[in-house]
């Protein structure tokens, strides 16, 4: 998982999807996550994933793309490697958090 994916937050999430997402890190270890929220930036979808076991409040932001495998649709969670893309996504997400705090 890329360093760009780390996102600390101190707000509550209503989970978008209770389905567990399993991602593999660079060492081959599997980690279980829940989708805390999704949002759109420049016509791309992004998801904030949080630990499924609740042991960490740290969230990770990934770009989400649909993938077709043998006629079945799957979601592919892609690490954000591009610094410009990350800066834009982080800016939009932080603006969303500020709006939530004002409500």
Characterise the protein shown here.
This protein has one domain (3-102). Strands 1, 2, 3, 4, 5 and 6 form a six-stranded antiparallel sheet that branches. The relative contact order is 0.21. The chain has 103 residues and is an alpha+beta fold. Strand 3 and strand 4 (44-51) form a beta hairpin. 19% of the residues lie in helices and 47% in strands. It starts with 5 loop residues before the first strand and ends with a helix.
Give the SSE map.
Layout: E1 6-7, E2 17-24, E3 30-41, E4 44-51, E5 59-69, E6 72-78, H1 83-102
Antiparallel strand pairs: 1-5, 2-3, 3-4, 4-5, 5-6
Summarize the structure.
The chain has 103 residues and is of the alpha+beta class. It has one helix spanning 83-102, and strands spanning 6-7, 17-24, 30-41, 44-51, 59-69, 72-78. Mean pLDDT is 84; it is low at 6-15.
What structural class do the secondary elements suggest?
alpha+beta
**Mind summarizing the main beta sheet?**
6 strands, antiparallel
Poorly predicted ranges (pLDDT <50, ≥5 residues)? Answer: 6-15
Mean pLDDT: 84
Q: Which oligomeric form is depicted?
A: single chain
Tally of alpha and pi helices? 1
Rough shape? globular
InterPro entries: UPF0473
Pfam families: DUF1292
Family: Belongs to the UPF0473 family.
Protein name: UPF0473 protein BM613_07050
